[in-house]
Structure formats: structure tokens, C-alpha cells
């Protein structure tokens, strides 16, 4: 079965100084989400940008009205018109280096593991998941934790009770 194309653009070269395997980490994390969620992979494309804090701050300001850098932004392409014979772009995930480095230190995890988590989180947003309310956040966190576990990364959300589907609320 053909695997999804994961295109990684390194817009901030310091990413590769901090984490030489950053591109491979992004590809592995994105593909793992797609596999776990059984998303058809033929013709599917995900774009990932390893960016500076400045680029992410500008995007966050322009698209979300928040004039600050954040760790990860996701721009879903779901619902856009698909052109037969062309790759189906799931969307873009953009990660800010400085914020990621700072947060990995604060959380006591490696930059590799934190980048993996940010990519998993971003791809789940591309698939339509969000964390705007408690129930949605618990579901998204459980999905992320499952994928991260498969990648050998500990649960970033700690000792919360994991919700695996909306049925768990009934």
C-alpha cells in the first residue's frame, strides 16, 4: 500500500542544528497518526514546516489574531476541492523552534519527543480534532497518547483518565 507523502520544509536551519533527525521525526510521527486513524494514504500529502518563532508569530497574528508565537499551528485543507489525479493535501503543520525548545526543557522531555508530540497534535487538528471543550480535549489527548505510545514516547498529559471515544461519556 502506498504511504502518504509527508513533505517537510526546513525554514529555520537551526532546527537541524538542534535536532539533526528532525525531518525523519516529522515524517514518522505524521505517518503514524495517518496509519492509526486508517486514513486512506494513496495520493495523500501532509506539509510540515519547521519554522522560526517569528514566522509562526506572523502566521498566528494574521490567521488567528494572536500576536504571539505558539508551539504549533495547523491549517487544514479538508473540504477543499480535490482535483482528480493530484495529491490530496491534508493540510499544513508549522512548528516554532524557540517555543518547542523552551517547552521541551520546561516539560523535561527531549526535543525529539516534544517535536513528535507537536506533529502528532498538529496532524490530529488536520483530521478535524480539537480541544475547545473538555470532552473534545480528552478525546484528542487520548488519540495523541495512543500514537505517542506506539512511537515509544510517554504520555505527555500525565495521569489523566483517557477517553477513547464519545461512548465513554454515556
Which structural traits does this protein have?
single chain; 170 residues; alpha/beta; Collagenase (Catalytic Domain); 4-stranded mixed beta sheet; 16% strand; globular; disordered C terminus
Concise structural overview:
The chain has 170 residues and is of the alpha/beta class.
Overall description:
There is one protein chain. This protein is of the alpha/beta class and 170 residues long. The chain has one domain (5-131): 3-Layer(aba) Sandwich (Collagenase (Catalytic Domain)), CATH 3.40.390. The protein has helices spanning 14-18, 22-36, 53-64, 97-107, 111-126, 134-150; strands at 5-10, 44-51, 72-76, 88-96. Helix 2 crosses helix 5, helix 4 (97-107) crosses helix 5 (111-126) and helix 5 crosses helix 6. It is globular, with a radius of gyration of 16 Å. The N and C termini lie far apart (37 Å).
Amino acid at each position: 500500500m502506498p504511504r502518504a507523502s509527508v513533505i517537510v520544509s526546513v525554514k529555520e536551519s537551526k532546527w537541524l542544528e538542534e535536532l539533526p533527525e528532525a525531518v525523519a521525526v516529522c515524517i514518522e510521527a505524521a505517518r503514524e497518526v495517518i496509519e492509526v486513524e486508517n486514513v486512506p494514504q494513496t495520493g495523500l500529502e501532509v506539509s510540515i514546516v519547521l519554522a522560526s518563532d517569528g514566522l509562526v508569530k506572523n502566521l498566528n497574528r494574521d490567521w488567528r489574531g494572536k500576536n504571539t508565537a505558539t508551539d504549533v499551528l495547523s491549517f487544514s485543507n479538508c473540504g477543499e476541492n480535490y482535483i482528480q489525479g493530484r495529491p490530496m493535501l491534508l493540510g499544513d503543520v508549522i512548528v516554532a523552534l524557540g517555543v518547542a525548545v523552551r517547552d521541551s526543557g520546561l516539560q523535561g522531555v527531549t526535543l525529539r519527543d516534544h517535536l513528535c508530540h507537536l506533529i502528532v497534535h498538529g496532524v490530529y487538528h488536520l483530521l478535524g480534532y480539537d480541544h475547545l471543550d473538555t470532552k473534545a480535549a480528552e478525546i484528542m489527548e487520548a488519540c495523541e497518547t495512543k500514537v505517542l505510545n506506539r512511537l515509544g514516547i510517554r504520555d505527555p498529559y500525565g495521569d489523566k483518565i483517557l477517553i477513547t471515544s464519545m461512548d465513554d461519556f454515556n
